[in-house]
Amino acid sequence: MAAEPDIQPLPVQAAVSAAPADLPETTLHALEHLQSRFAGDRMLLRNGGRIDEVSPSHYRVRGISASARLGDVIEHRSASGARSGEIVRIGPEEVLVAPYERNADAGIGDPVFIQTGRGAAPHASWRGRVIDALGRPVDGAGSLLQGKAGEAAAAPLAMSRQRVTTGFRTGVRVIDIFTPICFGQRLGIFAGSGVGKSTLLAMLASAEAFDTVVVALVGERGREVREFLEDTIGAESLAKTVAVVATSDESAMMRKRAPDMAMRVAEHFREQGQRVLLVLDSITRFAHALREVAIGVGEPPVARGYPASVFTDLPKLLERAGPGVDGAGSITAILSVLVDGDDHNDPVADSIRGILDGHVVLDRSIAEQGRYPPVDPLASISRLAPKAWTKEQQILVTRLRSMIARFEDTRDIRLLGAYQPGADPELDLAVRQVPTIYEALTQTPQDRVSPDPFADLARHLRSKEKPVDEPVE
Questions:
Q1: CA distance 120 to 366
Q2: pLDDT tens, residue by residue, 106-143
Q3: Which of 6, 52, 122, 146 is deepest in the core (most CB within 10 A)?
Q4: What is the C-alpha separation between 414 and 408, in angstroms, rounded?
């Protein structure tokens, strides 16, 4: 008995290509129409399973383990409609899914299907728009155009990156003098809650040196989103800004995906050769979302409740910022780091500090004195500052730091009345000039942008100098 032939299904596109040349034109049109209906990500059949266990933050699905991959997006169909989630763990018989919606409305036996495609793809027309962590518009301004889907996100290879060579002015005097920033740098703003991180971030986001600004608001209060975008950033800067929003009441998966979506948008514009500013507020809440998801899948905590995967995912995200390959632009990343309990040795803060190219420390005691931005110039550092300073500026900043350190170290002595003018000329100079320097560095979002902070500082110091009395004849 002859063996049956091995029959393989012929793809629709191949069927159209292999059609005989003498087929009627109406038949060819019918084949082309059929091909267009099912081209791309649409499929006649999809692999699916059913929910067999539900918890407040996850649910388990049987029947799709063989075809599932970590990070796959699934569609869950329930009585209230279709919902989506992400596969976060795969077992031999079942997979664990973290839903994107806070209320997944999942029930035992509900069908679940693996979605195909790469999701939203950034497009140049996204500038001026506000989107969520999945790339869906939330500003009521209509649908978004989709760009060309690219490869999976990854940092450029180390030896293919451009070098960081050029500094720029942010317009914030204390930053431009003590911790200047370069194009392609990654800088963290470290502070406790309520010290002024968001205000300083908004001042930095208004810098005119960038072609596109991407703002990611992760875990922020919902009522502050419009205030931040419309009032603090302003309509002029908002026109070149793409905002990605995941508020504090959204699920951990949405807060986890928001920085990734913001980075994908920034990478898209970097590939177009643009200079991009990425503002992320805050990276700590991203770490909290990572912790929530990781603990939900059973990872053990290793450092103050944080599982080990948190400290793996942080550099994966942050290394994607920076200069691109030759011919591309750069992503300058400015991140706020919420220091829990004002403890700057918190595991997340300590890990991020080692990844970034510099850190700005906001001090609560400085804010209580009414000095804004409350930057501590002695604790803040920019690893790329020598590329932004001239040699004369570097010498001047070193002298300023020394003078401020001398002033702060002797504060208790002066309060006790033990300071005697004339005994130490360097201390006399610090006592006379440091308060004036602090006054010159004070700046609010409503103040004018400082194009030359060193000239402004010198002008302020000269205006405060006491004239020497003329000798009396």
A1: 43
A2: 889 999 999 876 678 999 999 999 999 999 999 999 99
A3: 122
A4: 10
